[in-house]
């Protein structure tokens, strides 16, 4: 019997890894939002001195890793693994950053759920005795994502009110067997859930059932109730997905309303910044966690957090072929002990 | 100190997981090649009864998983994790298969290195005490890959002699803490290596330096010499990449010639089947390992194998932006004990 397994989908760590440092980099628009004081680096322009948005995203990811390592008082060569992914085809921003950094590398793809995928696997690698230090990181970029998934920006198309705004941002976390900081104590790995949503401009609704499934499974596997947490925070469901999630979790017997929020709603002022249903993209929960949440945990304003990054596993090909949008969500418990 | 770590990039398992069953599915062309008697399923046509090549690839992956689980005498619900990826944007074939199978899912992207990425992380999850049973799987499909990366097939363009033929195939392996079969004993995780090759029709040359780096690091970390192995087999370097690898490894002090081969050369008769430099794609090393190598290990004709799947981290965007092609390779030691 797997000795660290709780219930069907949850792991309880025997030697919970520390998150000894984080770093969050965001674009200019994110740097004008409500969380502006929590980010480590705010870009003045979203090309970041590069020749393309894709290279700018890659630089953002690379620099976030370097800054997190610096804040952990370690060197790049101390990092035994880099677990990372992004939204771009073939993980372009991640692959090129991994080339420059030279850290042994596992490429991940979980769409916007990638931050908790990297934290989950990273925590298992530390607790399992395979590494003392590693970095979990991800990124997204508004302009590179729009070019790839929707329309070239030059097209100037109108965005429906259900649509979300891809966050230009990257978050990197250093996990360690030693040191101090909040610990990763539980991981609940999600299944791919698809209730048949086909509208690529309504990702929140497509991802919500996966978030619900993972949150409810987490409660069942661990025996925790919502009151166990100071904050339960989904990745980037936005206004519509958050409302659906809260109701569906309630229907399954858990009232999370008092402690529940969504990174896609925290990062922008949707009214003032015209971001419609909220933020999205791998960089959304990554920069909100590595910026706002981690720093509030260090200050002990938050002590028990369930981070549930959520991903829509949509490709332009599957969309053109009339397929619906599968969603996935992974949950990670982070605890001040 | 990470207790299971050897040298810089290698893990030595304390409780090496068993590979209790595998299944390999291939397309019609692969089914006419030299390894035809080793595959579990050979498709009669590469649409496999589906409406698109992408859906056919997804079905191939899903059916490989189901057959491997059946051969292991287990049920789908016994599988605690599915670790999988493919070449398609947003892992379309994997995501849709994971949706149908309903197994907790970690999406991976390592281009053609994905089979050893999934075996590496899978072995860590079993040895670490997080699961008793899981499935590691990947796929590729000639027609879906050509459409995405190069030209629509209808274009009928001529292929240069350095080009490789993407394998239509999928391989699935069931890893377990119990049972019998060959064991995964060591894992050497690769770095992204890029020596500046820019020709997307010469992937072998682009990936070879990564294979060399991982193989030489494996020898240094473990203290093994090439003679330790009955077979050292790279993923899909093809004729050109294999020759480069053999020479570069020799220059670094190890003569692997007597035990070295490449999955991309094993799967096709390049002359008779007009596949130029050999096979490629995630499904290449996956189907050759899960078909030929695993079955030869069960028969004890092979007892110590170093499987080194190799990936070219090329995207059409990075290629159009004039970037070179980064490569990566992960090595896994599989031993009859």
Automatic annotation (TrEMBL), chains A, B:
InterPro entries: SpoVAD, SpoVAD_sf, Thiolase-like. It comes from the Bacteria. GO terms for molecular function: acyltransferase activity. Signal peptide: none annotated. This is Stage V sporulation protein AD. It comes from Crassaminicella thermophila.
């Amino acid at each position: 019997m797997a000795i660290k397994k709780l219930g069907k989908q949850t792991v309880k760590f025997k030697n919970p890894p520390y998150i000894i440092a984080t770093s969050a980099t965001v674009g200019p628009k994110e740097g004008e939002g409500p969380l502006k004081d929590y980010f480590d680096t705010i870009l003045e322009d979203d090309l970041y001195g590069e020749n393309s948005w894709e290279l700018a995203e890659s630089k953002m990811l690379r620099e976030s890793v370097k800054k997190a390592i610096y804040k952990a008082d370690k060197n790049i060569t101390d990092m035994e693994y880099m677990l990372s992914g992004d939204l771009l085809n073939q993980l372009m921003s991640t692959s090129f950053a991994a080339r420059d950094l030279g850290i042994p590398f596992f490429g991940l793809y979980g769409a916007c759920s990638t931050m908790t995928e990297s934290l989950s696997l990273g925590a298992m690698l530390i607790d399992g005795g395979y590494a003392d230090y590693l970095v979990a990181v991800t990124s997204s970029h508004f302009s590179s994502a729009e070019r790839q998934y929707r329309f070239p920006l030059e097209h100037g198309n109108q965005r429906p009110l259900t649509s979300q705004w891809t966050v230009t941002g990257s978050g990197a976390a250093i996990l360690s067997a030693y040191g101090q900081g909040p610990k990763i104590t539980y991981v609940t790995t999600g299944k791919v859930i698809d209730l048949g949503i086909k509208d690529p401009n309504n990702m929140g609704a497509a991802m919500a059932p996966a978030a619900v499934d993972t949150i409810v499974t987490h409660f069942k596997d661990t025996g925790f109730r919502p009151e166990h947490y100071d904050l339960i925070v989904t990745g980037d469901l936005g206004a519509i997905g958050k409302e659906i999630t809260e109701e569906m979790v309630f229907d399954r017997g858990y009232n999370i309303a008092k402690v529940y929020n969504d990174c896609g709603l925290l990062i922008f002022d949707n009214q003032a910044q015209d971001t419609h249903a909220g933020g999205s993209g791998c960089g959304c929960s990554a920069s909100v966690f590595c910026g706002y949440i981690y720093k509030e945990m260090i200050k002990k304003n938050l002590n028990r957090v369930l981070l549930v990054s959520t991903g829509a596993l949509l490709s332009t090909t599957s969309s053109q072929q009339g397929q619906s949008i599968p969603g996935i969500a992974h949950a990670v418990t982070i605890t001040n002990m």
